[in-house]
Every structure is written in structure tokens, then in C-alpha cells.
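Ticket #4471: complex job returned nothing on first submit. Input attached below:
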Amino acid sequence: MKHSVVAGSLIAIAILTTVAYHLLKPDWVLFRNAERCFSNKAYAQAIPLYNRLLKSGFETPRLLNHLGTSYVATGQFSEAATIFENILNQHPNMLSVLKELANIYVAFGRFKEAIPLYQTFLQKQPDNRSVRILLARVLSWSGRFDEAIGEYRKVLGEEK
Amino acid sequence: MKHPKITSVLSACFSLILALLLGPFPAFSEGPAQKFSVTSMAEGKSAAGPQAVNPPAVKSGEDIPDWVARLELARVLSYVKRYDESIAEYQKLLKEKPDLTEARIEMARVLFWKGDQQAAASILQQLPPADITGETKVLLADLLVAQKDYAKAEPLYISYLEAHPEDQAVRLKLAEMLSWQKKYDASLAQYRKILQARPDDIQVRRRYAFVLIWAGKNAEAASELKKTLD
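Support reply: We reran it on our side without changes. The output follows.
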């Protein structure tokens, strides 16, 4: 008899706890759902969840980063650019976002805007060869050949 | 304590409730909205643990090998007419990747721009015929023409034009080359094809008229020249 009471109490506690959590922390529940979609690469499903969170004032760098990434994954580059620009306004040295936004600018042919982002990235990570090659390419596509040559030579260890 | 196990279970449950009410599952402590570390995100690490996914990039740029960078450097050097430096980079690249036909052809092109037609032709002629396609055929033909080796150039132009019949610039090269060899009928046939595609091209019509004169077709030549004056 006593055991059944204890078991019943535990079940009741578990239910009440879950209900209380959902009532008191709805944003976190929604965030967890959005993150689950993101982790499962269900980017199109994650986007409206992240946007609902943003509307309710729930904003974290992680949320913005994942929303931006989801936009990129679903080909919504201009929305992605807006999100990443917002993140950079708050955190100007966030390397992953610098690179991601620069890549989006490049995809849109906005080379002038991509170049300073790659350069800022390289100030923090001067040994990142891939980003330096991307910078060299964008400089070349912008007609800034001499600067591009300098960057290529740095990658190849022919220039400091 | 008759039921120590039950007591400890209940105690654990209350702790759980308290923790859930105070903070978000699974961290048990909410903290400020920016609980996820900016630094860890910047370094590509994730607070979400092993289930986190790598964000897809528009253009990753990862794992770009040195030889690709050198090939691109050689190209950019050629764009700014630093031909000697460009050729030096191609040579370094070909030491590392001797089978890179693309680089060999590009180096031949740079040598051509530099004015070293013999070296350019030599490189291209060493390539297996199967690797000489499209515009490379035209480049080699141009180089052979510069060396007055018309016999080798002609089949290359013809082969290219079979695949690109709309390329009137290359057809004009063939027409001129045929006229220099006094193959007037063949040359005139090519000129007619060009004029069919570009009837208003006065310069081509004048050249056509000159070949007609060389072929002894003076009346026809006069008629064509008159058209260029109208």
C-alpha cells in the first residue's frame, strides 16, 4: 500500500514538474525544440521556431548563429546576412560569423564588403591558410591583383 | 527512518523539482540569456555537446592545397603581365604536379603572351592529342601559324570549328591562313560562311574581295568592294 502511494506520488511529481517547467519556461522548451530540429538538420523547421523565440525577446548569440546558419542551409542568403550582420554588431570579433558573413557576401558578389571581414578574421588567425586563400581570391575578383599576389605568397610562405 | 530508500528517493525528487523551477533543463541553472559562450562558438565548439552539428558554409574554403594556391597565384601574375614570375610559379607547380595538363596549357598561353611562341608550341606539342581540346586547339594552331607550320595548324582549326561553327573569329583565322597558302577556293568558302553570319562586316567583306582578286575573280571582287562603299 505504502509503495503504491510513493510510486503514485513520484508519478504525480514527475507530471507536475513537467507541466510547471512548460508553464514557467516556455521559451526554453521552444528553444530546445528548435535546437533539436537544427541538430537533425531540419533547418526549414528550425527557422520558424527560432523566429518565434526572437519575437518573444529570447535572443542569444547561439540562437542567432543557428538561425543564420539555417537560413544559409535553406538558401535564404539575404536573411542569413541580416542575422549575421546583427550578431557582428554585438560581437564584432566573432570569427565563425565573420567568415560565414564574408562567404555570403562573396556568394552575392559583394566583394568590397567581404574583404574587410576576411582581413579582420586573419588579424585574429593569421595562420588560417584557407581564409587567406579566400581573401586572395576575392581581392583578385575585385581587380586588386597586387594585394591578391601578396596574400597568395603569404600562404605559400614566400612572403611574410 | 523506517524507509530510508523511500526518503532518499523523495529527497532526490524534491531536489529535482527545485532545480527545474530554478533553472532550465538540462543545465539546472538559467543564468543570463548569453549563457552560451561566444568564444566557444567562435572556436567552432558547441555548448550543446556531441549532438551539435557543424554549420554548413556557403563556400567552405577548407583544405585548399598548396598547389591550388600556386596555380591561382600563377594565373593572377599573368593577369598583371608579370609573365616571368607567372612562368616561374607554373614551373614550381609542374615540378610538384607534372601531370597537371591544365597548368601546362596555361603556362604555354603565358609564354605565348610573353612572345616566346616556340616554347609555348613546344609545350603544347608534347601533350597527348586527347588533352588538346577546345581553345587549346586554337592556341596551338595560332602558334603553328606564327611558325608558318600551316599544315599542322589547318586540321586543328577545322576540328575546332566542327565543334564551334559559330566562332567566326577562328573561322577568319582559317580563311586567312588558307589564302596565304593559295588555297583560294577553300579560303573563299570560309569567308562566305563568315559573311553569311555577319553580312554587314565591312572589314571581312574587303578581305574576301582581296582573296577574290588573288583568285583571279576580279568582277566578283569589284562587286564585293562596291558593297563596302555603299
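Chain B touches chain A through 47 residues (CB under 8 Å). Closing as resolved unless it happens again.
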